[in-house]
Design brief:
Radius of gyration: 31 Å
Low-confidence stretches: 1-7, 85-107, 173-184, 202-220, 300-306, 513-560
Mean pLDDT: 77
Strand content: 5-15%
Strand order of the largest sheet: 3-4-2-5-10-1-11
Length: 907
Amino acid sequence: MENGDHGARFPFPFKPYPIQERFMEALYAALEQRKVGIFESPTGTGKSLSLICGALTWLRDFEEKKRKEAARLLQHSDRDRKEGGGENECNGVQKSGQEEERGSSDATTEPDWVSEFVQKRAEREMVNKLKDEEMKRKRREERLEMIRHNAQLKYAMKRKNSEVNEVEKLLQLSKQELSSEEKSHEEEEEGLIVADYESDEEATTKTRICDDDSDDDLEEEHITKIYYCSRTHSQLAQFVHEVQKSPYGSTVSLVNLGSRQNMCVNPDVARLGSLQLINDRCMELQKNKHDKQNKADLEPKRRCGVAKATCAFSGYEKLMAMRDEVLVKVRDIEQLLQHGRETHTCPYYSTRMAIPAAEVVVLPYQSLLHAATRKASGIKLKDQIVVIDEAHNLTDTITALHSAEVNGAQLCRAHSQLSQYCDRYRSRLKAKNLMYIKQILFVLEGLVRTLGGKVGLNPVTQSTQSGAELLTINDFLFRAQIDNINLFKVQKYFEKSMISRKLCGFVEKYEGKGVNIHSSSVNKENQRTEGLGRFLQSLQNKPAAPPEQQGLVEDRPSMASPMMLVESFLFALTNSNKDGRVVMDKQVCLAQSSLKFLMLNAAVHFAQVVQECRAVIIAGGTMQPVADFKEQLLLSAGVSEERIAEFSCGHVIPPENILPIVLCAGPSGQELEFTFQTRDTPQMMEETGRVLSNLCNVVPGGVVCFFPSYEYEKRILGHWESNGVLQRLAAKKKVFQEPKKASQVEQVLSEYTRCIQRCSSTGGGQSGALLFSVVGGKMSEGINFSDDLGRCIVMVGMPYPNIKSPELQEKMAYLDKNMPRVDGRSPGKTLVENLCMKAVNQSIGRAIRHRGDYACIVLCDRRYSRAGTLQKLPEWIRSSTHTHSSFGPAFASIRRFFLEKRQTQQL
């Protein structure tokens, strides 16, 4: 492999910085020693590239060691067989393996010939296994090498695909002709009825495409691989681009996973828009394909009825061909979609089929951290490597993934839909199905009752007494009077029967939207015309939404499948009583009231990851403070202190390129302390305006000002507008404000960037731009304010979370009860401080993005000067931080800082 002579041990596309070399050394050691590592490397230090080169170097070395060890054992075995006397020269590895397998049988006395026979059989099994693995590895490498270099094979595949496309087009035309004929009502409804449910024992479902055991799937087990996950698809795409640029880009087998919504290339499915609708339609098409195959085998003579639609992009041969293409060339999701459209193949399923043979699997957080999603995706973590990037909010992410919420309108709709489903198909459902459906209906009645409502009535018109109440899981089950229901069995029934998906199809066909109690005694003629009548009625009523939907606009995306949300909520209730709480939030009407399950102990769900994996790397640009990671996530998950490794490095920029300042007072001498009692006073808001006005006089380019909340931003900007402060600021820098809609962020950033570039090149009255943003908002994470876009970051106040929130209060109480005190401070109070400082660190880290960048950071609140608070800043910022009790010296140092930078640039 080419490494450009940039590193003897770690191939790198250029000469790495010393901190990158230290990062890779520490990463290599953590993977080798099976550690759980917390790695902090500031943004701009090449963290992604260090992760790639360090981890892949370890993986190549590890595979090479495995290969040499296997070759040595095979050679030793062959020599022993030839000599006929190798039974007494057993390898230590073999002995230990035999001892583990035999276990307690060694305790009993056995004849020598029995022990010798067992020992030889174990040796033979190990040798045969090694030979099989070696043969599979060679076959896999030969196949991938052939695909890489054999252009004729690719051309033949392409021509074959085009021929298959023609056939599929003809089939589609024939299906359309068939669909115009009279439909068989019984045939249509077969897919809506749940299958016979005869046992509570687990059974494998047969509807998933990737579950079919084929020769190719059995060809290889999951090879040792690296699972890399991050929060957003844009961060994952950025990582994939770094892999492509790395020395490993042409040789590594990388698979990029995403949701159906992001990877579907079937235009008829993708245009549905909603994630849930896309998932449901895709699953239905896959089921139709399997039903079609099964019926062709079982009932070859039956050809009546309508041909059910299947996905033209999921042909087995095409999926296998794309699977191999995915493994031989690194592609991001956009490139996968383009390849899928060109070859008329589904990227979603082909990437999942490629997981076992991949060396690197790139996937979003929820696909790895949620056990059910992990299982559905075919991800196996046993003895694998997991790298979790951008992990500063990992605890909150796991908590959010395992929390659930359902409102009164959704509960009533779920009950209405399931009742109608049961009435329509009662005669065709077996007793076990009816029993569980009645149990679910009983549970739904109990849940609605806890909110002060009744099923069967319009939830919008049912008034309830407002108020919030927080209960333990057991207390909530007693309150709902469903403590006698075995929710574990109900959960298993949901999974095996797929009743939620069946119900979704039933609703789509018969009921429509809203909570309308339809009669089940509808004759066949009415059933035929009901869908058409609904469609015509929807056209007539399109301008005005029904009354029951007008108050529930925000609920519209989930209206199609409320039972899915109920299923998630009931699954959450199976957690341990001490690990979660239920919040009952009652509003003026039942429809707006909600039940929310709050997950308190994220370690319960993270424990399986750290226990199964060989090593876990938790990485981020700003991981400080790390104490809560260790206490709440690792030690609570059973990770020993010895297994935890910590690494933190400074920035690549020289210390003189950053000027962090804690500002304790404003220009008029007003003390800056934005407590809840003082921050709304006119004096404090006007003093903040004077601070910003002075900064805009001396700071070139862009100034980004972060407020603690949207509410405070609105209040202070309104005050400034009324007394002329905003106009004075606008005279020096054009003012921009963070938009409320995520779709408008790109537009505001583009205008902000163009304004700064224009002012830099043409000069004029304005010296740049001023951007008002909010901590934890759309611009506090993932946005790069590099160079002139962020020459100064101003943090107004300390963004403490809402201490009156019942969720936060319960979390604090849980930590105080279950975690030890640190330095005399309660874990609950420490949590609040850590949440605040994590948000601050994320926001102020937006400015410095590369080695030549420079910026000033102004922390406007005297509370930042406290030793405990300063300690929670990243080390590379903390070491350069200056605290000023008055404004004059602080302003002078800022002026001098930018003057020196301007002079340096002119030289």
